[in-house]
């Protein structure tokens, strides 16, 4: 793609997110979301390959449907309360519809089926944008409407996302799909704590963005599209392999590392709210995510690709 056009598209992407994050009127929030969606469609379909075209179509349809649902729920709320203010969502049916729309926008289970397909059909840099930057606008809407969203629905979506993200990621061999299911599981933890403690949700989001960015940049540098590709990382760069190992273990939530902190705080808060069965189920689902992250770590650092003796290490 032409660098000038690419720059304009990325600026539009940034503008859409910032408009949504800074608006107090539902119409402006919707405009920001639509701008965001329309800006990323050409980035996904740059390859002109049937799979990337399919990914762009799937992404557009789901995001357009979610945006329409957000606009519809805000219209119902405005009809009943007389205000378009985002923080004044006091009509119960529109709150339920809004939570469903935001779940579809983010990729929370059971509305998560589009996310792995879209990431698999995109290039690694595009998948990186979808998994990180595209989560900011819907998460900001959740943050602003959190006091009014139905907490039972958020808790159930958090549990189903964490469980299905862990289960579905177990049998994947493509790194982009593994990252997609890992993203679904992490979003489940954020949805779980959203209605209880907003500060922990923000910290969870920041830690997720930081670790996902580090891992995607490592995958882009090593050109790893499958688990088999990660086995050759050690021959390219030992430093990169070690960084990938630490990032993967942190993303899985292994205790001494950064990724464990948000999970620990979420579990502590759930126990304080007397949601002990929910906390137990979330802790069990975290083990599923940790398993496939550990498997990826094993392939990256503890196995060597079948090279001949004459073949020198690149580093």
TrEMBL record:
Spans through the membrane: 59-76, 96-115, 152-171, 178-196, 202-220, 240-258, 270-292
Keyword terms of this UniProt record: Electron transport, Membrane, Mitochondrion, Mitochondrion inner membrane, NAD, Respiratory chain, Translocase, Transmembrane, Transmembrane helix, Transport, Ubiquinone
Protein origin, superkingdom: Eukaryota
Catalytic activity: a ubiquinone + NADH + 5 H(+)(in) = a ubiquinol + NAD(+) + 4 H(+)(out)
Localization annotation: Mitochondrion inner membrane
BP GO annotations: mitochondrial electron transport, NADH to ubiquinone
Claim: Chloroplast is one of the keywords in the record: no
EC number annotated for this UniProt entry: 7.1.1.2
Pfam families, sorted: NADH_dehy_S2_C, Proton_antipo_M
Cellular compartments per GO CC: mitochondrial inner membrane
Physiological role: Core subunit of the mitochondrial membrane respiratory chain NADH dehydrogenase (Complex I) which catalyzes electron transfer from NADH through the respiratory chain, using ubiquinone as an electron acceptor. Essential for the catalytic activity and assembly of complex I.
Protein family (similarity comment): Belongs to the complex I subunit 2 family.
Record-given protein name: NADH-ubiquinone oxidoreductase chain 2
Protein species of origin: Anolis cristatellus
